[in-house]
UniProtKB/TrEMBL annotation:
<dbReference type="InterPro" id="IPR046341">
    <property type="entry name" value="SET_dom_sf"/>
</dbReference>
<dbReference type="InterPro" id="IPR011990">
    <property type="entry name" value="TPR-like_helical_dom_sf"/>
</dbReference>
<dbReference type="Pfam" id="PF00856">
    <property type="entry name" value="SET"/>
</dbReference>
<keyword id="KW-0812">Transmembrane</keyword>
<feature type="domain" description="SET">
    <location>
        <begin position="350"/>
        <end position="553"/>
    </location>
</feature>
<keyword id="KW-0472">Membrane</keyword>
<feature type="transmembrane region" description="Helical">
    <location>
        <begin position="691"/>
        <end position="712"/>
    </location>
</feature>
<keyword id="KW-1133">Transmembrane helix</keyword>
<protein>
    <recommendedName>
        <fullName>SET domain-containing protein</fullName>
    </recommendedName>
</protein>
<dbReference type="InterPro" id="IPR019734">
    <property type="entry name" value="TPR_rpt"/>
</dbReference>
<dbReference type="InterPro" id="IPR001214">
    <property type="entry name" value="SET_dom"/>
</dbReference>
<dbReference type="InterPro" id="IPR053209">
    <property type="entry name" value="Gramillin-biosynth_MTr"/>
</dbReference>
């Protein structure tokens, strides 16, 4: 990983990386020309450690070198079948199939994206080792302290960005950390004097000490050691299993926790702690029926157990959410607000509405409705398989760049890959749902387990992540577009916009069922986020059996640009109505439109400056918007005028600020028509007769109509639009409860009641 402060460092970095990777390709299979001495390697490791820490602390943005430039699959061969090699046998840019090296760390490690250390082999040769994708919650020194012996299976030896060499361990299943007692540790590295023999009880006490200090990995490791020595079916075995189950729960290893608790229940079916811990494991995995059964059993034995009663109550609520899709959104939203910059997950269930996965022809699988669905209906409320919010403390915000495809992804993606790998490694049953997601043309290795442990292919995880992840914010509805319009992009924003297909800096996550939705530029559903929930609602009436689509990009740019991104990022060509009609338009029309839109967007600066003066620049802006409209020859209900969204938004915001409500009223209604909406007054209510193009910024068009009607003395019109807007808001924000939170101030100022 490389951190940078200046924008131009970005291209310098990429050019340099490209040169180095090309040079490395040319040296494939060769021995390194130069090997630094042990002393100089250790010296530069130690000085880099302090530099890296300083740099990481001061950096605004990081480029992750988790670059898929050389994908080598993980080792699937059992350890017994591998042949021992030494450092001098390694050749550049190769994964040494059928071999392993055994090494000992000679320094304490440091960490940027990977954990980096210097290790020696039995001949005293030394090499840098970069260990990727270990759990971020652990201190590197607790994973590979000086003196730690470890095996790297099928080591991948490579040139580094700095021009040196290193063994790069991408796959967690390729590294085995050995303790001193392991018979694979060479005799000369065995601890002397030998440690005193220990009893299971000693390990239990050590484990409890670690647990008390919240060092759950270390605690679980101690309990495991104790269990290796404990008599089967003994009391100490039971205690160690129960303690380890609790440590696993803290770590999120729910499957392992359940296995330990169930083992105790196998010997002692009414063990209270085992029943409770197994129920919590089931609850955390969303298996609320099993959680309920276990808690009911527990409460029969122990009716006054408060924890069990509370948990059972929560379980009933989850079961209701799961069945009905009824959530306490206002409460949940407040909870998310209170997270501040802490990590968090909402305590709620997943709702799967009237949807199913089915075949979508050449698009692969897709999501379909199982019955007729009305505008605004909740289709899905999906819990994240894993999400990394950029708002959370410790978020690693990077640009992930693939030098082969020249694709960039800005956000928390590299952190997401690393955290996914840990989940997959420790929860193999849960992992199955993730592995069912598409990975494009990536060739998967055969085999799920080796030496009793799951095989996790980091490159596969990266590919699945890139194809299926959603960019997200914790509370989209807080980003009031009216408020944010005149904020200048920061330097970071500009770099991100240049490097990333969406042009946005975002958190990212994986949601399993929503991943089956295919793209349409004019989608029939809208997705939104609340904490770790992804909410999908119908953006129009959808008949039974129709495919549910989502807009991957929500881009206002022209068809050729969108298609380029679809090809490079997701390997498809979009054939939606919008793309078809726009492709058929002449280049001349599209060039003209693009030019006018660019002009209008630049006008923002001028308008902003003239805000303090008497509303000058406004007439030319109105003319520009009209000129963009005039480039269309197809009716708006066939072809919504998406490139008009931002210019219109700017114009309206300006008009609102200039107190020209009548203009806004007429223009905003016209803009909604331009996006394909047909809104009619029927029996004293406004109804949407035709659904147009819908996503979050469009809400401000509706809000402009409300405020403009109120300011120009039409309170009943304002109220009608207010009620309609709340319904539309629910679709784009996922819930209606926050509407007044976001727009209340603007409405009150215009004199619109907000209850
Ligand atoms: C997130 S997945 C969607 C589910 C996927 N169809 C599957 O079978 O698992 C994204 C992939 O779906 C396909 N896809 C999505 N939208 C498409 C579209 N409009 N046309 C063709 N293929 C599409 C592309 O292969 C893309 O890489």
């Amino acid at each position: 990983m490389f951190a940078f402060e200046q924008e131009d460092e970005w291209s310098v970095y990429l050019n340099r990386a490209e040169i180095i990777f090309k040079a490395a390709e040319g040296r494939k299979g060769q021995k390194p020309l130069f090997k630094p001495s042990r002393a100089s390697l250790i010296y530069s490791h130690n000085s880099f450690s302090s530099q890296a820490q300083a740099q990481a602390a001061g950096a605004t943005l990081n480029i992750s070198s988790n670059i898929a430039y050389n994908e080598h699959p993980p080792c699937i061969a059992p350890f017994d079948t591998l042949e021992k090699k030494y450092l001098e046998d390694l050749r550049l840019e190769l994964a040494h199939r059928g071999s392993y090296v055994i090494l000992r760390a000679v320094v304490n490690p440091d960490r940027l994206v990977s954990i980096s250390t210097i290790a020696e082999d039995e001949n005293g040769e030394v090499e840098t080792v970069q260990i990727y994708n270990q759990d971020d919650r652990r201190l590197p020194v607790s994973i590979v302290p000086e003196g730690q012996v470890f095996i790297v299976k099928e080591p991948f030896f490579k040139m580094t960005f700095g021009g040196g060499t290193s063994i790069r361990v991408d796959h967690v299943s390729d590294i085995i950390f050995l303790d001193g007692e392991d018979e694979r540790v060479p005799e000369k590295w065995r601890p002397r004097p030998r440690p005193l023999a220990r009893r299971p009880l000693d390990w239990k006490e050590d484990g409890n000490r670690f647990y008390g200090r919240k060092q759950y990995f270390e605690a679980a490791q101690c309990y495991t050691k104790g269990l290796e020595l404990a008599e089967p079916y003994s009391e100490i075995e039971r205690i160690l299993l129960l303690n380890r189950a609790q440590a696993y729960l803290e770590l999120g290893y729910t499957e392992k926790a359940l296995a330990d608790a169930d083992k105790v229940l196998g010997q002692d079916p009414l063990n209270i702690k085992a029943l409770y811990r197994s129920a919590v494991s089931c609850y955390e995995d969303g298996d609320y029926e099993s959680a309920k059964a276990r808690l009911v059993k527990l409460l029969k034995e122990c009716p006054e157990n408060k924890d069990a009663k509370d948990r059972l109550l929560r379980t009933f609520r989850r079961l209701r959410e799961q069945r009905s899709g009824e959530y306490e959104f206002a409460k949940m939203r407040n909870e998310v607000k209170e997270w501040g910059n802490k990590k968090g997950n909402l305590d709620c269930a997943e709702y799967v509405g009237p949807v199913r996965v089915g075949h979508a022809g050449s698009k692969g699988r897709g999501l379909f409705t199982t019955r007729d669905v009305k505008f605004g209906e909740l289709l899905l409320c999906s819990k994240a398989f894993k999400v990394c919010h950029k708002e959370a403390e410790g978020a690693r915000f990077t640009i992930l760049f693939n030098l082969k495809t020249k694709n960039g992804q800005s956000g928390t993606h590299s952190q997401l890959v690393q955290e996914l790998i840990q989940i997959l490694y420790h929860n193999p049953k849960k992992a199955k749902r993730f592995y069912e997601l598409t990975s494009g043309d990536y060739e998967r290795v055969k085999g799920e387990m080796v030496d009793g442990l799951p095989i996790v292919d980091s490159h596969l995880v990266m590919r699945i992540m890139l194809k299926n992840c959603f960019g997200c914010a914790r509370l989209r509805a807080l980003d009031d577009p009216l408020e944010n319009l005149f904020k200048d992009p920061t330097k970071e924003d500009k770099i991100i916009a240049e490097a990333s297909p969406t042009g946005r800096a975002e958190g990212s996550g994986i949601w399993i069922l929503p991943s089956y939705m295919n793209h349409s530029c004019w989608a029939n559903s809208v997705r939104s986020f609340l904490g770790d929930l992804l909410i999908v609602r119908a953006a129009r009436d959808i008949p039974e059996g129709e495919e549910i689509t989502t807009n991957y990009l929500q881009s206002e740019s022209r068809v050729e640009k969108r298609q380029k991104l679809f090809r490079s990022q997701w390997a498809f060509e979009c054939q939606c109505t919008l793309c078809e009609i726009e492709t058929a338009e002449s280049d001349e029309v599209k060039d003209k439109r693009e030019e006018l839109v660019e002009k209008a967007l630049k006008f923002k600066v001028y308008l902003e400056q003239s805000l303090t003066k008497v509303g000058k620049g406004i007439e030319p802006m109105i003319k520009l918007v009209k000129a963009i409209e005039a480039t269309y020859s197809t009716p708006e209900f066939l072809y919504p005028r998406v490139p008009l969204i931002s210019p219109t938004h700017i114009l309206h915001t300006f008009l609102v600020r200039k107190q020209r409500p009548r203009d806004v009223l007429a223009l905003a209604k016209g803009a909604l028509n331009g996006l394909g909406f047909k809104i009619q007054l029927k029996a004293g209510k406004l109804v949407i007769e035709r659904y147009g193009y819908l996503h979050f910024p469009i809400i401000s068009f509706f809000v402009h109509v409300i405020t403009a009607a109120a300011i120009s003395g039409q309170p009943s019109t304002a109220m009608l639009w207010r009620d309609l807007t709340i319904n539309v808001y629910e679709v784009v924000a996922g819930e209606r409860e926050s509407f007044f939170d976001v727009y209340g101030r603007a409405l009150l100022e215009a004199g619109v009641p907000v209850n």
